[in-house]
Amino acid sequence: MKQLSELLSSTAVVQFTASSDVTIQALNYDSRKVAAGDCFFAIRGTQSDGHDYIAAAIERGAVAVVCEALPEQLVEGVSYVVVEDSNAAMADIAAAFYDYPSEELELVGVTGTNGKTTVATLLYDLYTMMGHRAGLVSTVVYRVGTKEIPSTHTTPDAIRLNAMLREMVDEGCDYCFMEVSSHSVVQDRIRGLQFRGGIFTNLTHDHLDYHGTFAEYIKAKRRFFDGLPKNAFALTNIDDRNGEVMVQNAVAQVSRYSLRALADFRCKVLEMLFDGMLLDVCDREVWVQFLGRFNAYNLLAVYGTAMLLGASSDEVLQAMSLLRSVSGRFEPLRSESGITAIVDYAHTPDALENVIATINDIRREGQQLIVVCGCGGDRDSTKRPEMGRIASREADIAIFTSDNPRTENPETILDQIEAGAVEGARTLRISDREQAIRTAVMLAKAGDIILVAGKGHETYQIIGTEKRHFDDREVLRSAFGILNSKFKIQH
């Protein structure tokens, strides 16, 4: 608990009413979860306005309210703090409430369109393997040391984030690796955090439904690097056309990594097989259990970060050789009949193209590629025709299906994907995702490769407002089981 006056020391207050020496038990922005002694934050969101729930929060016991406009009726005994931006104030106050936990960690943020989860998770795995206690904040899972916490957002809200960082410190963690989404930057979720470094992976078409334009999307990502302090590092991928843009205003120490140009950290793919690839990392060879140039970039970012954090090159390379792929990222499953399925989170045109390129690099003549993909509903619709174009152009058979349609009509989404399909390509349209995957398995023969893209690690499907259990890997295993039993019967 903290005194309200303590918490406001770093917050710009426009107007203040009532007593400042009230004791705050907890912080909350959800009026339904408020308890006696809490401070309630009225946040203006895209779906609702927290100012409409101030009265409800007070009824549940809130003793302080942080808002952008005072309610018409003030309740005696409640402290009202008026600020210009409730999101920003919540981040400042959350950091103060939890005693600025980021300052006690080596906190590294990873941002970009693709690769954030892989890079952050591999850094966590690497440092854990090297004997350190670390934390992880990712799309797939949050980790405090070895404890797992279900992930709700790529980057959680400022209250939960600071609470989790404090828990990491209390559990003896020295490092934390976290994904930094563009939404979290714009919504000030990472405001007030002290980063030791930031990593830029790449920037491609995504989230324009939220940011409006690609220029605004770039601006959101760049704000993260603009905010890094002088004693931090900024590691950027200069093979991406926006790599230099990200760090053009940075006061942090800039380092660069590349597979194609001279850079502080360089890498070459020397050999690629289905069980891994041989890399030359800064003139040192290492065999890794990953596939694809996109994973070479991810691993190089991991290596460069470890070097900037002061690790030993020998120790890092040895640990890298033992790392395994992240759940739902180029995750292979094989049937007894000789079919290989790959489940991947690729849900942007660039990610889909990279995954298919990797498969094409290692598949042999005569091996058919079947791609199952879709696009999420209530999200950026402009990428849908491009996804259809890439899948239909690169695959022997492309099956368009539902991802998480949410409140959109799945057939409308499929219409937009099909609009980009290459003329004459072999395509199928099956809205039911399970049926689409089973159809791909039935169409495949021994040696063929099936790519199921879009959902990766997700174990649910959102249809309407209902979140139903659904796992691409479970469906594949079931379909493979049926196929295997048929083969056994024939023999």
Tell me the span between the first and last alpha carbons. 70 Å
CATH architecture field of the largest domain: 3-Layer(aba) Sandwich
Q: In percent terms, what proportion of residues is strand? A: 15-25%
If strands are numbered along the chain, what order do they take across the biggest sheet? 11-10-9-12-8-13-14-15-16-17-18
- Number of DSSP-assigned strands: 26
What low-confidence regions span 5 or more consecutive residues with pLDDT below 50?
485-491
Reported for the largest beta sheet, the result is: 11 strands, mixed
Can you give the mean pLDDT?
93
List keywords for this structure.
491 residues, alpha/beta, Udp-n-acetylmuramoylalanyl-d-glutamate--2,6- Diaminopimelate Ligase, Chain: A, domain 1, UDP-N-acetylmuramoyl-L-alanine:D-glutamate ligase, Protein-Tyrosine Phosphatase, Chain A, 3 domains, eleven-stranded mixed sheet, globular, disordered C terminus
Describe the structure.
With 491 residues, the protein is of the alpha/beta class. It folds into three domains: 2-97, MurE/MurF, N-terminal domain (Udp-n-acetylmuramoylalanyl-d-glutamate--2,6- Diaminopimelate Ligase, Chain: A, domain 1, 3-Layer(aba) Sandwich), CATH 3.40.1390; 101-320, UDP-N-acetylmuramoyl-L-alanine:D-glutamate ligase; 331-490, Protein-Tyrosine Phosphatase, Chain A (Alpha-Beta Complex), CATH 3.90.190.20. Helices cover 33% and strands 23% of the residues. The protein is built from 16 helices and 26 strands. Strands 11-10-9-12-8-13-14-15-16-17-18 form an eleven-stranded mixed sheet, sandwiched between helices. It has a six-stranded mixed sheet with strand order 19-20-24-21-22-23, sandwiched between helices. Strands 2-7-6-5-4 form a five-stranded mixed sheet. A hairpin with a 5-residue loop joins strand 19 (331-334) and strand 20 (340-344). Helix 3 runs parallel beside helix 5 and helix 13 crosses helix 14. The protein starts with a strand and ends with a helix. Mean pLDDT is 93; it is low at 485-491.
